[in-house]
Amino acid sequence: MNTILQHASDEPAGTAAKTAKVWDPLVRLFHWSLAACILGAFLVEEGDTAHRWLGYTALGLIAFRVLWGLVGSRHARFSDWVHGPRAVATYLRERLTGRSQRRLGHNPAAAVMILVLMAGVAAVGLTGWMQTLDAYWGAEWLEELHEALANGLLVLVGVHVLAAIVESLHYRENLIAAMVHGRKRTLDHDRH
């Protein structure tokens, strides 16, 4: 395992922190590409060619991530981080009481957020694509649904970013940077 000088405030100065590769390059490329597509789709004119292609690209990224969640690297696989409702409830209870263990991969609450975000992106993309079909051309209810889903997705993205900041502060580790370089600090009590 590699070491780098990356200190949490509870580590003595001059101590090399052990790190582990958690997020593979494809997970990181997916994450930032999807973020760029979502941001771009909100910045360009609705119905514009660029808006549509950003949506189609986001749908393609979701399809890729589902596939990579089945066959990808350890922490990319759904089997590593998707847990049942009981595990999520237990994690949230432990987190609220300050007894939750840090995890190298996604915690159960983050897993729920990721799945909801992926479903949200898929729903926004599909309702956008449906508007191009003759059967739904000019259907006002579909336009309104697409817009409501897109606005809901923005709220979810905001919650996701806020949660990453809160968890970064709580565990004294920059989780956003980890999604750039792929490494996280390891501790003896980490849950893998």
TrEMBL record:
Keyword Nucleotide-binding: no
One annotated Gene Ontology cellular component of this protein: plasma membrane
Domain Cytochrome b561 bacterial/Ni-hydrogenase: 22-182
Record-level GO BP terms: respiratory electron transport chain
Subcellular location: Cell membrane
Keyword annotations: Cell membrane, Membrane, Transmembrane, Transmembrane helix
Name this protein carries in UniProt: Cytochrome b
Organism for this UniProt entry: Aerolutibacter ruishenii
Lineage, opening ranks: Bacteria, Pseudomonadati, Pseudomonadota, Gammaproteobacteria, Lysobacterales
